[in-house]
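User: two proteins, same treatment. go.

Assistant:
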Amino acid sequence: MPSFKADLGINMGFAVNRYIEPEVWAKVVAEDLGLFKVQFVADLLNPSLPDEIIDSQIKRIKNACANYGIEVESMFTCGYTRINHFLHPDAEARAYWLEWFKKFLEMGARLGAKNSGSHFGIMTFDVFNNRYDELLEAGVTGWQKLSRRAKELGYECLIFEPMSVPREMGNTVAEAKKLMDMVNADAGVPLRCCLDVGHAPDPSERDPYPWIEALGAVSPVVHLQQTVLHKSHHWPFTDEYNKQGIITPEKVVAALKKSGAEKTFFAFEISHREHHDTDFRIIADLKQSADYWKEGLAKCL
C-alpha cells in the first residue's frame, strides 16, 4: 500500500462577515488555530467586485499570508455562492457564470492555489423534471471550458463537491463518478472531488466511510465536520459533539488509505449559527477541533 500524507487546514467560510479583514483572519488561523493552509472562499472576495477592489484585497491577502506563513491551498465557493451557476436554466446566465469562474480561477492563481472548484451546479425543480439531459450536457460543457482556462493558469485540477439531493448533483457515488467521467472525456485539467465527510446524500448511501473508500483517491480536498448519521450538522470537533458524532481521524484516515489515496488536504468546514450562544465561541471551538485532529493524525499517519 502506498504511503499516505495529509495536510490540515481550514475552509474560510467560518470568517465570512466575522473576520473578513485579511490581517485579522490570517492571525486567527495561524496564531489561534495553529493552522497554515486555507481553502479561500468566494464569499470573502467575490469575483464580481470591481477590479480595483479585487486588486487591493489580493495584495492585502498575499501580505497577510506571507506575514503569518499561510498557504492558500485551494479556492471554493461558499454559502452565498451556493447557486445554480453551470446548471442555470438560462443560457445567458450560464455564460455569465463561466466568466465569473474564470475570474475566480485567475484570482486563485494570483494567490498560489493548486486547485479550485464548487458544487457541480444546481438544477431548479423544473429543470430537474423536464430538462435534465439538456442541462447536464450544458453543465459538463461549462466545466470543460473552465478546465481549459485552469490549465492555462497552471492549476493541477478542478474540484466539485458531491451534494446531498439529486438536483444538486452527485448524491450517489456512481453519479459522482459519472460526472467526473463526462467532464474528463474532454478536459484541460481533470475534474476531481472535494468530499465532505458529513453530507447526507441518497438514503441508500448515507454512511460517509464507503464514500471515502470509493472516492478518496480522486479527492485532493476533504471537508471536515462532526455530525451524526443521516445529517450534515457541520459541528465542531469539541468534546460535546465528539461524544455524539461519527467522524474520527482514525476512521477517516483508514478509509482514505483503503481508497488508495496518497495525499489529502483536510479542510475544516464548521458552521456556527448567528446566535448569542455560539457567536462568541467560534475561535475556541475551532481551536479545539484543530487540536483534536492534530492529535488524531499524529497517531495514524
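Protein 2:
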Amino acid sequence: MLRLERRARRIEPGGERNQMSDNRYVRTEVTGAVARVTIDRQAKLNALNPEVIAEIDAAFAGLEGEPEVRAVILTGAGDKAFVAGADIGVLAGMGTLTGTEVSRAGQEVLRRIERFGKPVIAAVGGYALGGGCELALACHLRIASERARFGLPEVGLGIIPGYGGTVRLARLVGLGRAAELILTGDMIDGTRAAEIGLANAVVPHGELMDRAEKVAARIAGNAPVAVRMALASLYGSSESSMDRALDFEATLFGLLASTGDMKEGMAAFLEKRKPVFRGV
C-alpha cells in the first residue's frame, strides 16, 4: 500500500535565501515572498515514485504554515525534464487494489496543490509527461520554455491518466482537445500548449525561471487574503452551479471588505501610493 509520510520542516537561517531541507528528492528554497520547490531526481528524469510524491506533499504542507510565502514556483531540476512521468517500474507491479491506491495517493497530493491558498506556478523546461503533465495541470499557472514537451501517453501503456489528468485537462483546454491528447498519447511542445491554453506562456529556455519569478513576484505584491479568496472562487466555481458560484463569490467579496488589506489597498489608491499589504 502506498502511504504518504509527511515530515516536519524548519527553515534554516541563511540570509536572504533560506533552504528547507530534510528531503532526498525535493528541495524548497524561500527568497522573500516567493518559494521555489524543485524536484531533483535527474537520473530518472525527475520521475514520480511514492517517495517523491510524499516529499512533494510534505513540501507544500510545510509552506502552508509560512505566512511570509505568498507564491510558489514548482519546477524540475536539470534541462531535460520537469517531471517525465510516473516511475514505470512501480506501476508495472500494480493490481486492481494497489492501482486504485496509487491513483488515490497521487490525486490527494495534486489536490493539495490545486487547493493551496497561495498561487503555484509550474515552470516547465522539459518533459512533462504522464504524472508530470498532471502535476503541472494541478498548478494554478504554467509557464513553459521552448523545450517543454507535454503529453499524457498512458493509453500506450494500457492505463489512463490516474492523478486527475482526464478531469483537469478537459476543464482547461476543452473536451475535444483533451480527448485528442489523451486518446492519441501524442506530445505537444510549449508553443502548441500555449495556443490551446495548456500553458499560460512560452518563453526562451534561458528565460524560464526569470519569467516565473517575475510572475510570482507580481502576484506576491498583491493582497494575500484577496489572492487566496480569488483562487477559492475560481476553483469553487468550476465545481458548482452558476447560482452557487455567484453566491460564494459575493460572500468572499463581503468578507474581504472587512480586511485591513482592503482598507490599505483603497487608501493607497486614493493617496496615489504603493500599498503595503499585511495579509490581514
